[in-house]
Every structure is written in structure tokens, then in C-alpha cells.
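Hi V.,

You were right to ask for the full record rather than a summary. Here it is.
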Amino acid sequence: MILAISISAAVLFLVFALSARWTWWRAPKPGLKALCYHKVGIPPRGSKLKELWVSPEKFRAQVKYLLDNGYSTLLFSDLKKIYESGAQLPEKAVLITFDDGYENNYTQAWPILKELGAKANVFVVFNTMGKVNLWHNPASEPWVNMATREQLKEMQDSGVIEYGSHTMNHPHLSALKLEDAAWEIAESKRQLEAAFGREMCAFAYPYGDGAYAPAIRGKVLEAGYTFDFSFRQGKTAWPWDRKNSTLDRLFIRGGDNNWDLALQLSRGASRL
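Predicted structure:
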């Protein structure tokens, strides 16, 4: 009898210890819900960055979860209207964002978004459109195709996708001279606006690098972006204190399921 109680207690402790990795026990946190994806598809052989890949099945299930639970997906232009009007952010508004602009955003993610009636935003690296992800070392992350200008235009024309800037070449901005970082930031805005005939009101720092360097962030604001997104995990309080903080995001990993997504949306993180 004592042994059975001890075993039961040990099992309960193990279950609690394992479940404590998830943030279900934290209080819900208010703020902007901005999901951060990269690639939709199956990681190629040799990829050491598998967490950047979300399978089409999981992506579809996650978008369906949002819609089934009353979330409305915003474009950058929608968020700008809310910000500039001083309106409250709707409790169940969410931004879906993709970094880099991969071809699989066109072949895999876009059809799912269209089918389900959701919207998303892509941060584009201008000089790699129609090429490959040249900033990655192919020994750790095989090169894959980036979306072409024509594919990006088609997605924009559908009304499902809007774009923001992810610089010209995806550098570590803090490793550059300030004037070179400023060129990466401002020139990408100019070139993308010329290419797509729309304002690029949002910017995302490659690798999150430079988001907390005042001189670099100053160049982003100086370039005329309304929004600048970090790669730090979390939600940003709204109304947003633009002068003093970037916008955080909720990184969706390849291994995440809908439980993780629900915790990200409510707690600002799913796991410790």
C-alpha cells in the first residue's frame, strides 16, 4: 500500500514537472499578438534549423484554430489604421508575419490562407527576390528558393498578403558601419515601394540584431517606417510606446502544436 502511494506520488510529480515546461500556469498577458513564421514545408536534408520550418498540415491547423476561435487576421495597413486612430486593439486581432520571403510562402502558405480566408504579412529581403537565401551557410541550412517578384505581386494583388522590409541583404546590422546599416534600412523601403506600388510601413530586424541599439533603431524610425519588429519573444503592450520600444513577436516553431499556439496567444510564450 505504501509502495503504491509512493509510486502514484512519483508519477504525479513527474507529470507536473513535465507540464511545468509549458506556461499554462502563467496569467494571461495582454498586448499585440504578432505570430512569426519563416518557412512552410518539410526541412531539406541537412537542415540544422528545422524549427524554422512548419509543415503545411500544422500551418493549416494553426490558421484554422485562429479562425475557429474568433481571431481576425490583420494586414500591416490594418494595424496602421488602428495605431494612427488611437483606437483600442481588438482583443482577438492577430498579425501573421513571415520573415525573409521564401518561395514556399507562395507555394504552401498562400493557398492555405486563401482557402481559409485569412491574411498575412511577409518581410521581404529585396536583393534575394527570385534567388536563394544567400545569408545562410549552406553547410547548416541548405539554400532554398526565394519568391520571385512576380509571385510576390500575385500574392499582393489577391488582397491576402502585404509586405514589409527585411533590409536589402539580410545582414547583422550591428556588424555594419552605421551609414551602411542606414542604407540597408532605407534603401529596402524605397526599392520595395517602387516594386510593389505600396507603402512599406513595417520593418523587421534580421536576426533581431539592432532592435535594441538606439543608433540603428533611430535609422529605422528616420527612414519612415511606422512599425519595427524585433525577434524577441512576447507580446507588446498596446497602446504602443513607439518612441521607446520595438514590437515583439511570438515565434512559431516547427514542433509547435495548437496547444503551444493557444499559450503563445494568451501568455506570450508557450514553453519555458
